[in-house]
Specification:
The protein has helices at about 10-25, 35-45, 65-75, 80-95, 105-110, 115-120, 120-130, 130-145; strands spanning about 1-5, 30-35, 50. With about 150 residues, the chain is mainly alpha-helical. It has one domain. α1 runs parallel beside α3 (about 65-75), α3 packs antiparallel against α4 and α4 (about 80-95) crosses α8 (about 130-145).
Length: about 150
């Protein structure tokens, strides 16, 4: 399936591309365009738009969710590691405000905000950032499987 978003991937768009390829559509192809073209490609080519105004999965939906959060809730809500990751991605991209940000968000923001400056294009960002998101997912998976200490 064709997925479309805006150029110069950073925090949430890179994470969403990872989520799509890793969990939703392993054969996904991506097109990175100007924001005005996202909705046109949805209509003309049946693409699924994300993280752009007017897209099927907008940058922020009416419930305040990023595209990553909306996709996790819609298709992967039974995976506690992805649910936790959705909050981290939200906080890294949008900021939690009021000091209620997930602790991992600042590090994720620090690393991912410069993706366009260190990768030659958006396709390279998708490929090269895979290790980062796989590692974060693995850590969150281990954390969600950890048993609480016994009460005394």
């Amino acid at each position: 399936m064709l997925w479309v978003t805006t150029k110069k991937l950073r925090i949430a768009r890179a994470a969403t591309a990872w989520l799509i390829r890793r969990f939703l559509d392993p054969e996904a192809t991506f097109r990175f365009v100007d924001e005005a073209e996202v909705h046109a490609l949805e209509e003309r080519e049946g693409a699924v738009g994300f993280h752009a105004a007017g897209a099927r999965y907008p940058k922020v939906n009416a419930r305040g969710q990023t595209a990553f959060e909306a996709l996790v809730e819609e298709r992967c809500a039974d995976d506690p590691a992805l649910v936790a990751m959705a909050r981290i991605v939200h906080d890294a991209d949008r900021g939690a405000g009021g000091g209620d940000e997930a602790p991992e968000a600042a590090g994720l923001r620090m690393i991912t905000v410069s993706f366009p400056e260190v990768c030659p294009d958006d396709h390279a960002i998708v490929e090269r950032s895979r290790l980062l998101y796989d590692a974060l997912y693995h850590t969150l998976s281990k954390r969600s499987r950890a048993k609480p200490p016994p009460t005394t």
